[in-house]
Amino acid sequence: MKKTTDIKENTLLNTNYELMSILLKDHTTNRNIIWATDNYKEKGIGFDVKDNIRIESVTGNNGNIIKPRVKKSKREQEKRIKDKAEVFTPSWICNSQNNLIDNAWSGEENFFNIEIDKGWISNKEKIKFPTKTKKLWQDYILDTRMEVSCGEAPYLVSRYDNVSGNIIEVHNRIGLLDRKLRVINENVNDKLEWIYWASEAYKNIYGFEFQGDNLLIARENLLYTFIDNYSDKFKEEPSINYIIEIAKIISWNIWQMDGTKFVVPYSCKTDEVINISLFGDVTQKIYCIGCEKNNYKKHNGIYCKIMNWDTNRPIRYITLLNRSRRNGNK
Asked: Do 234 and 130 share a domain, yes or no?
């Protein structure tokens, strides 16, 4: 597949219909993800905020419906900032913040690259893991990382520069997943073993996003990152079976969620109850307690599920949050 900033949904559909279905899957509702943005409502039926994103919706108009931020007009960009407080983070800032994570993990600085003014110089040598901490490259792959409100997932993968839109070559990428894959590329030469460790890397990368178009772009970026790395390593494209398996992991680990409520966006509801009395029928509205009281445990919406890859069973994301707070992590 061609390296491109704007991944065309038509290309994915023509590659494999199941692949496009997987990338639109919401495992919590067992339906497709929803738009969760009104940027497309002028297109008519099926494009409202709460509508599920259908394959035919994103593959129409030559597959130009959904575009990454760098390809959107300035007016579109400003509207999304105003409506949803959408934050734009240049790639060099993503790199700087990801470096802080790796510095803390490894106990060393300049682990993957050296920062320069609004940029970086990648370490061209094989990554050496610190002997003083006794951490191995396998430990790095299995260390779980997450990007909250991930947008197009610039902290996880850096396929293109967020300012210029130019493709970043595989060896120079700085995302949290990019770094895991670089380590695998440097330590594994057997194809089946590479696929195993790449799958483990994807299982240990998470991210959630509110808006459905951003979420689809994020999933596409992670999928193409797999293809880019495999192709760069083995000088051939991965089989469709490998691509589909990675897509399934992505569809679980990069999910749609209201990050303030931990539920599917817009799933909290108001019920109406009719009370019959001698004085006539009275309609009473029952609101979501969680929304009214700002209590994340009391929402009547659909709490999001993610996959526990250790048990291969889905769990509610909120249970991880509860566990973390019980353990004293604020």
From this structure: yes
Which DSSP string do the residues of 160-178 spell out, in sequence order?
Answer: B-TTT-PBPPGGG--SHHH
Strand 31-32 relative to strand 25-26, pairing: antiparallel
Tens of pLDDT, residues 256-269: 999 999 999 999 99
Predicted structure pTM score: 0.92
Which domain range does residue 70 map to? 1-256
Q: Are 308 and 319 in contact (CB under 8 A)?
A: no
Q: How many domains does the chain have?
A: 2
Instruction: Give DSSP secondary structure letters for 86-133.
Output: -----HHHHHHHHHHHHHHHHS-SSSSEEEETTEEEE--SPP---TTT
CA distances from 17 to 10, 12, 56, 246, 312 (A): 10, 8, 11, 15, 25
Q: Residues 16-38: pLDDT tens digits?
A: 999 999 999 999 999 999 999 99
Within this chain, do residues 233 and 212 fall inside the same structural domain, yes or no? yes
Claim to verify: residue 200 and residue 280 sit in the same structural domain: no
Residues 144 and 230 in one domain: yes
